[in-house]
Known about the structure:
By secondary structure, this protein is of the alpha/beta class. It is 35% helix and 18% strand. The chain contains eight helices and eight strands; from the N terminus they run βαβαβαβαβαβαβαβα. It has helices spanning 10-21, 37-41, 52-58, 71-76, 108-115, 130-134, 152-164, 178-194; strands spanning 2-6, 25-30, 47-51, 61-64, 85-88, 120-123, 144-149, 168-171. It has an eight-stranded mixed β-sheet with strand order 3-2-1-4-5-6-7-8, sandwiched between helices.
Amino acid sequence: MTISILGAGNVGLALAGAFTRRGETVVLGVPQPAKYAAAVAALGERARLTTTAEAVAAGDVVILAVPHAAVAAIADSVDDWQGKVLVDATNPLAPGLAGLTLGTTTSGAEELARRARGARVVKAFNTTGAENMADAAYPGGLPMMPVCGDDADARQRVMALATLIGFEAVDMGPLMAARYLEPFAMTWIHLAFRQGFGRRFAFGLLRRD
Length: 209
């Protein structure tokens, strides 16, 4: 399986590093490949850098790790996604991290699914910081990674990827659950930046027998 990641910022590079260290092949797609050549080269031979369009074509799973403002144009750029698993790792953040621009009755992921014709959209990798995606190891247990999507097979594939890089994947069911996951991301952001927690923490899932 080839994993394509659109975007080579903090989240894109963190996920690419986590996947390649576990033996996966990753194609990173960006509008200006030369700008990110050194950063991607540092990931090793399992990571390849190309254009956004070429990365979309190459991947069985395509992860959106771009600013939310870029999502619509990427979705519209493909006439038919032909059943590809399209993972929305973005959040519709308001300027200055003041909140979300969507919510309650829809979500960024649901709006993406309406535009990305033929894609199997899954929401994941949006509820924690890039540092945790680069290294999910915590002494107290596994951090959780909620995953939702309307296609059960696509959801399970993305849960397997989250498990591969060290998370406890949590099946949140249909894509409408993204209405809860995007605000949940704001909980992490609020604690990290407004409440002084910093970025070295993650949420876990506790269970009683």
